[in-house]
Amino acid sequence: MAIETIKKVPLHEVVYEKLKTSILEGDFRPGERLNQSLLADKLGVSRMPVRDALRILENDALIENQMDKGYVVANFSRQKMDDILFVRSILEPKAVLYSRGHLSDEDISQMGDILAQAWTELKAGNWKSLHRLNTDFHFLIYNAAGSPLLLELIEKLWHSFPKYLLHEQYDANLHSLHGHENILRFIKSGNFEAAATEMEHHISQH
């Protein structure tokens, strides 16, 4: 029996993913300084992988290198977020259409389970868990679209700014879940055109 070789991941990539997640989930807020020494101590690594990770995050425009402060979490303007949402509203409905015939019954059932759990998290006010479930719901569809390039573009846009900036209020999260309900209902009925239209509306209403 063939056994696949375990691939070693460079340490700076591990640090990068941890820091990116912390920024996107709001553990580090816009304008907050990222001290390399403190981060290295907290993560239990040397400063070198932290420095390399910060450079990648700067290239992603998630952080900025300011002369007087060093690295700080970027401030995300409403205009920038609107630009990203506009492009998402074009690409993601296409992914919905491409997922036709590829979403399995198990995928659709899982979307229902995610939505049910999301309602529970909304009632409890667990925004971080809710945002993760929101991501899971969307990417069950996008992963089924069968287009690696489209998926890569969508992922890049999703990671361009923290979603909590749009969904820190109960009403915004409530509206989002109603949109998910509509999308799932159309997918279950096989009406992917309506699901794609609803996805465009869902994104544009943020």
Which stretches of 5+ consecutive residues score pLDDT under 50?
none
Determine the mean pLDDT: 94
Strand order of the largest sheet: 1-2
Helix content: 55-70%
CATH class of the largest domain: Mainly Alpha
Q: Give helix and strand order, one letter per element, not per position.
A: HHHEEHHHHHH
CATH homologous superfamily identity of the largest domain: GntR ligand-binding domain-like
- The N- to C-terminal Cα distance equals 51 Å
CATH topology of the largest domain: Four Helix Bundle (Hemerythrin (Met), subunit A)
Largest sheet: 2 strands, antiparallel
Q: Supply the number of helical segments.
A: 9
Give your account of this protein's structure.
With 206 residues, this protein is mostly helical. Helices cover 66% and strands 4% of the residues. The chain has helices at residues 11-24, 36-43, 47-59, 78-98, 105-124, 127-143, 148-158, 170-188, 192-204, and strands spanning 63-66, 70-73. α1 (11-24) packs across α3 and α4 runs antiparallel to α7 (148-158).
SSE diagram, text form:
Blueprint: H1 11-24, H2 36-43, H3 47-59, E1 63-66, E2 70-73, H4 78-98, H5 105-124, H6 127-143, H7 148-158, H8 170-188, H9 192-204
Antiparallel strand pairs: 1-2
Helix pairs in contact: 1-3, 2-3, 4-7, 4-9, 5-6, 5-8, 8-9
